[in-house]
Design brief:
The protein is an alpha/beta fold and about 450 residues long. It contains 8 helices and 28 strands. Strand 14, helix 6 and strand 15 form a beta-alpha-beta unit. The chain is elongated and about 80 Å long. Keywords: Cell membrane, Glycoprotein, Leucine-rich repeat, Membrane, Receptor, Repeat, Signal, Transmembrane, Transmembrane helix.
Length: about 450
């Protein structure tokens, strides 16, 4: 009887303990729900809803964003990513590639304003508003308060006005893209060196016409690997200032096409001899001979100097560029014999790597040399020059990878060559030459693939 009472007491004690645990868990859950809805933190959910109210969403692309019971967890909203551990919003990506897949409109979303409530997202490290049309509104100064941002893309958003220097407060930023905002004006870039972790910078179409020290500023970004400043009105660097720069050695990709750069740009680029892989300086004011410094860029794989006023021929230092895959010198006033250039390539391992060679729209003359050693060529454009003589099948006999061949608008003569070895050929232009005779029957198998 006594043992029975003891068991009953133990059972009662266990029931009371279980009840307290349940009540404690309920209190804990209620306390948690005061700040978190599902995984979503309430303060951050309200900040996102305020941000949505600043947008025009005609296609209802943000239908998952709402206050209804089934939409309480903002971590499930389109374009929003949260930490699995804390519930904090880490990423807000409303770019066209994320929400635009659900709309036929080019600008999937339109913006009336960027709500200042956005600064409540203090753990945000990725913000992408690419192709949200903000119709000439200004980038807000408070964007510089999102101190944990590592990735910021406001490209093609139609912002205008002065660019806020407060972005210099984003010292963790690694990726900054403000391109395709032609009405943004940066009076200076003095804030840029504060972004010491920056690796990717694209300010294409941003007006930098008055920023004369842009090259000095870029050299103060020790981690920068990718620089794109297309159509910015960039002035050429000041030589006297560049001579004393202790620049970083990280830049691998530099695209500065469609600016006002002169040959002083090559002095600046000489700081990056060992790191540059991809260099585009097309559509600038480059004149005179192609400088030797380019031939000392041992890692260079892609080089475009098209549509400038370069003359003469390539320097012998080009023989040192063993990794060159694409060379575009079109639209200049280069002259001389193509055979000289081919000899330079033949003296280096570049003959095994070169895939694209564009020498069109120059003043090159003479007969076509034997190109068979350029065995990796896929694109060869020699059109709009002054080449003469006969086209022989031996010129291209080993170019089995060649897909695009343009010899149009020259003075080539004779009959059509045997091109049956060009098994990959898809595009062929031979028009506006002095070719004669019929089309060889053997061309049938080649023509069947031509565009």
């Amino acid at each position: 009887m006594q043992s029975h009472r003891m068991c009953l007491k133990l059972l009662l004690a266990f029931a009371l303990l279980l009840l307290r645990c349940v009540q404690g868990g309920e209190v804990s859950r209620k306390h948690r729900d005061a700040t978190v809805t599902g995984r979503c933190i309430e303060k951050e959910r309200q900040a996102l809803l305020a941000f949505k109210r600043g947008l025009v969403d005609k296609s209802d692309l943000l239908s998952s964003w709402g206050s209804e019971a089934q939409k309480q967890d903002c971590c499930r909203w389109i374009g929003v990513s949260c930490s699995n551990q804390t519930g904090h919003v880490l990423q807000l990506d409303l770019s066209n590639k994320v929400v635009g897949a659900h709309s036929w409109n080019y600008y999937s979303l339109e913006g009336k304003m960027i709500s200042p409530k956005l600064i409540e997202l203090q753990y945000l490290h990725h913000l992408d508003l690419h192709e949200i049309n903000f119709y000439g509104r200004h980038i807000p100064d408070f964007i510089g308060s999102l101190s944990n941002l590592r990735y910021l893309d406001l490209s093609n958003t139609n912002f205008e006005g002065k660019f806020p220097s407060q972005v210099g407060n984003l010292t963790n930023l690694q990726h900054l893209d403000l391109s395709l905002n032609s009405f943004i004006n940066a009076e200076n870039l003095d804030w840029l060196p504060l972004l010491s972790s920056l690796r990717y910078l694209d300010l294409s179409l941003v007006n930098l016409n008055n920023v004369s020290n842009w090259a000095e500023v870029i050299n103060k970004l020790p981690e920068l690997t990718n620089l794109t400043l297309l159509m910015c009105g960039l002035p050429s660097p000041i030589v006297s200032a560049l001579s004393y720069i202790n620049s970083s050695k990280s830049l691998a990709r530099v695209h500065l096409s469609s600016n006002q750069l002169s040959t002083s740009i090559f002095l600046w680029l000489s700081n990056y001899n060992t790191s540059l892989v991809d260099l585009s300086l097309s559509e600038n004011l480059l004149a005179g001979s192609i400088p030797d410094v380019l031939g000392h860029m041992s890692s260079l794989a892609y080089l475009s100097l098209s549509n400038n006023q370069l003359e003469g021929w390539v320097p012998h230092s080009f023989a040192s560029i063993c990794n060159l895959q694409s060379l575009d010198l079109s639209g200049n006033i280069l002259s001389g014999q193509l055979s000289k250039f081919v000899q330079i390539l033949f003296s280096t391992c570049a003959q095994n790597s070169l895939e694209i060679l564009d020498l069109s729209w120059n003043h090159l003359a003479g007969s076509l040399p034997d190109l068979t050693n350029l065995s990796s060529l896929e694109v060869l454009r020699l059109n709009n020059n002054k080449f003469s003589g006969v086209i022989s099948g031996t010129h291209f006999s080993k170019l089995s990878k060649l897909q695009d061949l343009d010899l149009s608008w020259n003075d080539l003569a004779g009959s059509l060559p045997d091109l049956t070895n060009l098994s990959s050929l898809e595009i062929l232009f031979l028009n506006n030459n002095q070719l004669s005779g019929g089309i060889p029957k053997i061309f049938g198998s080649v023509f069947s693939k031509l565009f």
